[in-house]
Amino acid sequence: MRFSKSFIKTLKETPKEAETASHKLLLRASMIKKLTSGVYTYLPLGYKALKKVENIVREEMDRAGAQEILMPVLQPAELWKESGRWEVMGPLMMKLQDRNKRDFVLGPTHEEVITDLIRNEISSYKSLPLNLYQIQTKFRDEIRPRFGLMRGREFVMKDAYSFHTSQESLDEEFLNMRDAYSRIFSRCGLKFRPVEADSGAIGGSGSQEFHVLADSGEDEIIYCDSCEYAANVETATSKVEPAPVEELKAAELIDTPNVSKIDDIVNYLNIPYSKTVKAMMYRDMGTDQVYMVLIRGDYEVNETKLRNVINAVDVTLLTDEELEKHGLIKGFIGPYGIELKDIKVLADEEVTKINNHTAGGNKLDTHYINVNYGRDYTADIVADVKTVKPGETCPRCGGKLHSARGIEVGHIFKLGTKYSQALNATYLDDKGESKVMIMGCYGIGVSRTLASAIEQNNDEFGIIWPTALAPYVVDVIPANIKNEDQVKVAEEIYNALLADGIDSMIDDRDERPGFKFKDADLIGFPFKVVSGKKAGEGIVELKIRRTGETLEVSKDEVVAKVRELMKQY
Questions:
Q1: Within a 10 A sphere around the Cβ of 32, how many other Cβ atoms?
Q2: How far apart are CA 298 and CA 218, in angstroms?
Q3: Could you give the 3-state DSSP secondary structure of residue 101?
Q4: Residue 340 neighbours by CB under 8 Å, 6+ apart
Q5: Which are the contacts of 360, defined by CB distance < 8 A and separation ≥ 6?
Q6: Mean pLDDT of the region 405-431
Q7: Among 5, 178, 440, 518, which has the highest number of CB atoms less than 10 A from its own CB?
Q8: What is the pLDDT of residues 8-32, one digit of tens each?
Q9: Which residues fall within 8 angstroms of residue 480, CB to CB, at 6 or more apart?
Q10: Among 457, 513, 537, 48, which Cα is nearest to 529's?
């Protein structure tokens, strides 16, 4: 491609709406153009990079034995109502009606569609297992689309679905997909980490996320420095250290004037945080059931864990008005000395091990001291609902836990029978008996992977593409477009690169060399070949974008040298 003929309109200034590095650079490097909030046009450079991600995904999915299909974007509401998710997904769905007032949705995901296909086409165990995938545009009405391709209303995703006759078969395919994903992100040149995760609205179990490590990541990852344990903070656990054994004391109500916060309690009573228990009042937004969630004072409730424990679609804290309605006094709520009636008590498992702890006195400006689980109160549910903190002990090996930011680019699930049961996707086994299929689900955010690569690979001058994803690997630049020797050598090298199958551009614009170099760095070409003062001698400069290193190379050796460097970068 000749730069003079290309549709590339780089920007000197960063658009005001851009916050993250990838968003800024995708816009400035003329990769994407905003149409409306969360919706972007892929310009030639951006689309070429996107296709390279797609091709890597496609090659590895094919290698893993999956078969590619393409399912419709437009999905009938009947399927979603049959699965029970029409209302569950709620405002996240892009809903519409046809001229006959029939309800449809622009697909946010394709579990319903694929299950409908398989239930109508597969009837025998002899046709299973089966793994089908697609690379398709998805639509989700995000409340706050932001960060460019990181979280949009329209995005490109690879989703795959497997169907099985046994849990063992699903487990095998789950590992197969995990290995395929590791190869995909490795080939994309990314630093990533697979982590244990929550299944979210998709459902199922055995969930793992793949995160690209980046400071701009929306997710917090908890990982061990001594073993391979890693988990999204939403599901991370830590080893609970046993509380010191001490004699149980009599519970006592004491005055704590204007002392309602945990920090103030600790200072007022001169006790450690490990001796405090706070009560957080939550409501199940689906059933309206109210829960008193008890947790050690220096921890926060992990709402994802809480939702999973009580099987809620979502939860919310009670408002001041709701607290008053239940006869509860904000800042002084506790499980002891109160009749809870229609309120259920859920205690974090660590609370049950704290001897002689404090708790709200259920009266203004009062607290109980020396309260003990089992003797003074019990819970309807005991479960791990705390948010793990860095520095705690690994639940597997006893090592130290650390925290990092990550961008979720892939997610694999063991769906089980959630959708096959709801949509009656069955098969006949070898005895002629009808059985429900067992399913797996495997997604990759293709457009998000593209953005994540930039988040991980950039500097003050622009993008630093991994060679595998670069729209063009080499930018051939004649320093002086009016110098015949420089232009001739540049053209020879450009044609040789193309003949060898290396994606390359030649910057044949009548511009200053510095202007061309800045554009090249902004766009992120892994290599620049500059035909300059020594062109007449057959010598050019080969510049490595990632390191800034400059090599003098014979024009006849450029292709071989670029091939060699492509293996490194």
A1: 24
A2: 23
A3: coil
A4: 292
A5: 278, 279, 329, 331, 332, 333, 334, 366, 367, 368
A6: 96
A7: 440
A8: 999 999 988 898 999 999 999 999 9
A9: 486, 513, 532
A10: 513
Residue-level pLDDT at 259: 94
First to last CA, the chain: 22
For residues 277 and 297, the answer to whether their CB atoms sit within 8 Å is yes
DSSP state of 313: S
Is residue 358 within a helix (H) or strand (E), and if so which, with residue range?
strand 357-360
> Are residues 202 and 111 in contact, defined by beta-carbon separation less than 8 angstroms?
yes
Phi, psi torsion values for 479, nearest 5 degrees: -60, -40
Residue 492 has pLDDT above 80, yes or no: yes
Mean pLDDT, residues 152-169 taken together: 97
The domain segmentation of the chain, as residue ranges, is 13-236+403-455, 252-383, 472-566
Q: What is the mean pLDDT of residues 538-561?
A: 97
Cβ atoms of 308 and 350 closer than 8 Å? no
The domain over range 13-236+403-455 is classified in CATH as 3.40.50.720: no
| CB proximity list for 144: less than 8 A, separation 6 or greater | 151
The reply to whether omega before 129 is within 30° of 0 (cis) is yes
Q: Give the type of residue at 340.
A: L
Distance from the Cα of residue 324 to its chain's centroid: 39
Contacts (Cβ under 8 Å, ≥6 apart) of 362: 328, 329, 332, 333, 334, 337, 338
H or E stretch covering 475: strand 474-478
Give the chain's length: 569
CB atoms within 10 A of CB 522: 18
Structure tokens at 317: 């804290």
Which residues lie closer than 8 Å to 543 by C-beta, 6 or more apart? 527, 528, 529, 530, 549, 550, 551
Query: How remote is the C-alpha of 399 from its chain's centroid?
Result: 25
Residue 199: per-residue pLDDT: 59
Residue 200 has pLDDT above 70, yes or no: no
CATH architecture of 252-383: Alpha-Beta Complex (3.90)
CA distance 25 to 29: 6
What's the topology of domain 472-566? Rossmann fold (3.40.50)
Cβ neighbours of 311 (radius 10 Å): 9
The fraction of the chain above a pLDDT of 90, given in percent, is 91
| Residue 552, both tokens | 């003098």
Whether 201 shows a pLDDT value over 70: the answer reads: no
CB distance 463 to 523 below 8 Å: yes
How far is the C-alpha of 195 from the C-alpha of 123, rounded, in Å?
A: 35
- What is the arrangement of strands in the sheet containing 550-554, beginning at the earlier edge strand? 504-506, 474-478, 527-531, 539-544, 550-554
Give the β-pairing of 277-284 and 230-232.
unpaired
- Beta-strand relationship, 205-213 and 130-139: unpaired
> In angstroms, what CA-CA distances link 70 with 130, 351, 383, 526, 542?
16, 51, 42, 33, 42
